[in-house]
Amino acid sequence: MKKQNLVVVGGGSTYTIGMIMSLVAEKEQFPLRTITFYDTNADRQEKIAKATEIILREKYPELEGFYYTTDKEEALTNADFVFVQIRTGGLAMREKDEQIPLRHEAVGQETCGPGGMAYGLRSIGDMIDLVNDIRHYSPDAWILNYTNPAAIVAEALRREFPDDQKLLNICDMPAAIMVSYAGILGKDVFDLVPEYFGLNHFGWFTKILDKDGKDHTDTIKRAITEDGFIPEDAEIANDPSWIKTFKQVEQMVTDFPEYLPNTYLQYYLYPSQMVEKEDENNTRARQVINGREKRVHTLADQIIADNSTENVELEVDIHGRYMIRVAASMAYNNGDIFIVMVENNGTIANLPDDAMVEVPSLITNRGPKPLAVGHISTFYKGLIEGQLAYEKLVVDAYYENSYEKALQALTLNRTVVDAPRARKILDDMIDANKEYWPKLHANKKAVTV
Ligand code: NAD
Ligand code: G6P
Ligand code: MN
């Protein structure tokens, strides 16, 4: 097996140490020659990198080199794989994305509704620059992007790099949900084969099979409605917010029992309930700053202080393992089936060809080969078309500097709906994002009656 040179862009991310532990756990499936971190924030990256150095010394002694840098040429030259996990504006801007809509009684969420639009308009430019840089220094590297909001980033990258066959956008949520299904069934998550369709953070499992072809869908539905549904992956199992989110799946399966929903559908199907539950002074961003970020930084400090991992507990989570299994299937042409984002081109027969859809695909060394879904029925088609139009309009707004397209996007979104409210949210978001967004051309003011 050829050993890979891996670059992690966003080395300072809160997910990096988990990813390193997953790389250690998956070294047989995805053996590495070198790991290089790249980040624009030297301090944020350094702490994570210093801890990583110690982890790798102990647990990956066969690795030929570990490097970290803020120099993109040094980082991106000679890469086989580049994992991208950046956050333009950081968690501080995530907090604003979530607070602003809440002030107008709309859902405040990182990737859904107005928050997703704000984050998308910040991320697109950086992501395009990054892919251009990677292609300049490593034209043949595989790029695995999971930077959010993945749906909007994927649509922008599709437009910007239509011929790039080695760029894949991916989300861990379907896999994290499948970890809980595996718990219900007493099986390993990688022994389950999903049938699924939708957009990123906006899809449904239609079937869960095992590798022998046995259908477990009804058992899972019954277990969810009768016994409840809980997160089981290590990263989220003890997180009160994720516990609530998984609990909401019980409601979704009770109301709409045909398919098993992605957890993110709660924001679109129960927006008023979501707004009621939220606290502007303690949105998810604040919880992450006080939770995951603090936990990871404390862990890194401890490893560095001890010059060892002996006093810390290091966990492997599905996020890293999933990305790595997909990468391995691309590197070694395993043809494993994973849910990823691809251009539709007939996969979901009654959706547009140019939609970025999220579907199970055979992952090969020629890229993902999506498995046909066929026609979807009216409820799902209607929901998806509205969401897809929102995503496309956000990307249009970026390219056309169009206030009107941004306003249309928000008005269309199920978490907003009301045009005057969409305008108020948009205006507040323009103010908050001055440093990051393209300048949107002004449109006539709201008419006062
Ligand atoms: P974070 O802010 O802790 O980490 C992001 C890192 O990227 C920071 O260290 C930052 O300095 C760096 N960075 C920002 N812009 C950069 C640029 N242009 N070039 C290089 N480095 C840059 O954020 P996080 O919470 O750890 O999340 C990282 C990203 O991964 C986010 O986009 C998050 O939404 C995404 N994510 C996606 C999924 C998924 O399912 N798709 C799952 C988990 C995390
Ligand atoms: C899931 C989603 C990601 C999201 C992550 C963390 O894994 O698929 O897209 O970034 O959750 O969300 P949180 O709200 O915990 O930061
Ligand atoms: Mn995701």
TrEMBL record:
Keywords on record: Cobalt, Glycosidase, Hydrolase, Iron, Manganese, Membrane, Metal-binding, NAD, Nickel, Transmembrane, Transmembrane helix
Q: Where is the active site?
A: 172, 264
Biological process, per Gene Ontology: carbohydrate metabolic process
Q: Which family does it belong to?
A: Belongs to the glycosyl hydrolase 4 family.
Task: Report the cofactors.
Answer: NAD(+)
**Ligand binding (substrate):** 94, 148, 284
Site positions for Increases basicity of active site Tyr:
110
Which GO molecular function annotation, any one, does this entry have? oxidoreductase activity, acting on the CH-OH group of donors, NAD or NADP as acceptor
- The regions listed as transmembrane in this protein's record are 6-25
Please list the residues that bind Mn(2+): 171, 201
The protein depicted here goes by the name 6-phospho-beta-glucosidase
Location of the Glycosyl hydrolase family 4 C-terminal domain: 196-416
Per UniProt, the cofactor note for this protein states: Binds 1 NAD(+) per subunit.
